[in-house]
């Protein structure tokens, strides 16, 4: 069921990163994604890498698990590297195979871009690895709050998000169950001509949709039975509150940003 | 077909922080033609066990053999489809797998996949609808218009239409009304006898285990806790209570009877009527000597 892909997977823990306010994590990661593109020298890349690795180790999630989970992304990273190796014609010629030249600029460029890519994926996956979906939606609802002034349905959006996130594992389980039941009835999802395999999806999709609709109806009924009527006047069970550690992390991150700007071009 | 588990273990999501051993070093043998009940508390590994029986999952360690088919961590039978046509599995809430436009098409789906000729399928359908208690008129209706109990019957008919040699039932009566439960179990038992199936029943119900099975396996935390004849295994109250299971009502009654009257009637899976006459005899005996 879980083919080692960890994007979107939450790993429970008690580390500093786990306990940070989700708004802190989202803000830091949001800005990190931008500043990754500002790095342009060995030192500035090192600063960012150090920050990313330090955060990763602080989560206390086994590093091999994270790296293995990024397997599908490795392909993209290697592909990016090779692409830059081939198309860049700057710097000295390093290797010349029958007119096909690889330049030093290509190696540097390829390395830099793949590094960017790797840092982006690593840091963003830390968010979902250490934050429950509920925390993420609470944080988004809170951060989008100002939009309420222009009548943007912030609460409804957050609710939709948390419901869909909540049902992803359920639907995955359901898919697993139904595909096993149909495999027992002789459906072959893995081999055979493409046309047959596409046809094999019908016995999987129909029951999946039927149960998803049924579930939605039951959920709506249960919510109504418990008096749900939208966000107006609804109190919160989990109040988000910024702690001392959040301010320390913000300070630390600003320090990283300043160092980055200082070390650009070095 | 004989079924043998030889030191089988199964780990979900191996090599991740979520790794979880569902079955741990499990060995047992199910002879061909037997009616085996697999009983255990929730999470004891029952559902994982049955997924091995038609090769949906393969053991992380150890070997499973079903007739001539062998499953290990790195070996599977060349013809998995053939194995699946010979081992039919009725999963929990099988009505969730229905998808066709009509009941008839849904029942025919399995046999069609396994390459059974269409005249033969028609023959099987008319026989099986009677067996499971559906009527001919329902065959042309959409399965989604039927009641929950009838949908269950359609799904079961879909598995039976393949005519497997081994029939695996995962709590087939869960959620049915008492009468439906009884009818369904009687039907499985009749089929078992008539077609000499090897039947494996996963259940919570001690009553069903004691009434229908001739071989019982009790699972606890993925390991075998007890195995044997139902009258031996299912009368061991203390041992069963240790794994959150209860003895069948009949055994409870005989226990209470012994406490009250000081007379022991051994449990041999006799019927209620047989127990009643035994009680009469024993009480008369008592009159004579007192």
Characterise the protein shown here:
The complex is a heterodimer of chains A (266) and B (290). By secondary structure, chain A is mainly alpha-helical. Chain A folds into two domains: 1-131 and 239-266, no CATH class; 153-235, no CATH class. Chain A is built from eleven helices and two strands; from the N terminus they run αααααββαααααα. Chain A is flat and about 70 Å long. Chain B has eleven helices and ten strands. Chain B has 290 residues and is of the alpha/beta class. Chain B has two domains: 3-244, P-loop containing nucleotide triphosphate hydrolases (Rossmann fold, 3-Layer(aba) Sandwich), CATH 3.40.50.300; 248-290, no CATH class. In chain B, helix 3 (103-113) packs parallel to helix 5 (148-160). Classes of the chains: A mainly alpha (266), B alpha/beta (290). The interface between A and B is medium-sized, with 25 and 28 residues.
List the helices and strands and how they pair.
The complex is a heterodimer of chains A (266) and B (290).
Chain A: H1 16-19, H2 22-35, H3 42-58, H4 63-69, H5 71-87, E1 93-97, E2 100-103, H6 104-130, H7 133-143, H8 154-184, H9 194-199, H10 202-225, H11 244-263
Antiparallel strand pairs in A: 1-2
Helix pairs in contact in A: 2-6, 3-6, 3-11, 5-6, 7-8, 8-10
Chain B: E1 3-12, E2 20-30, E3 35-40, H1 46-53, E4 61-66, E5 69-71, H2 80-86, E6 87-90, H3 103-113, H4 118-132, H5 148-160, E7 166-170, H6 178-194, E8 198-203, H7 206-212, E9 215-220, E10 223-228, H8 230-233, H9 237-242, H10 249-261, H11 272-289
Parallel strand pairs in B: 3-8, 3-9, 6-7, 7-8
Antiparallel strand pairs in B: 1-2, 1-4, 4-5, 9-10
Helix pairs in contact in B: 3-4, 3-5, 4-5
